[in-house]
Amino acid sequence: EKIFTENTPKTNSQYAGQLVFHYGEKITGLQQTQLNVKPYKGLMYVFPATLQHYVPPFFTDFTRISISGNYLLESNVR
User: Fold this and answer.
1) Within a domain: residue 22?
2) pLDDT tens-digit map of 20-33
3) How far is CA 28 from CA 14, 25, 32, 33, 53, in A?
4) Domain presence at residue 43
5) Which domain holds residue 6?
6) Do residues 28 and 70 lie in contact, with contact meaning Cβ atoms separated by under 8 Å?
7) Residue 31 included in any domain
8) Is 57 helix (H, G, I), strand (E, B) or coil?
């Protein structure tokens, strides 16, 4: 998946527009099982589609466009 931000408007929500990854098992409240990534102009992330992820709600008059896709790397090297 790819995340690309051209312009990131200001918002009054702390996590609005961030990319959030979840990983590991949350057995107790002591484990860190999430990573928040704050977007900025020109940012692009490539990560495994199997990694749990989401983007929190973004309430503003700004139009938000998300671009995502899947790809497969193949090699003919023997």
Assistant:
1) yes
2) 898 777 666 666 67
3) 25, 9, 10, 10, 20
4) no
5) 1-38
6) no
7) yes
8) coil
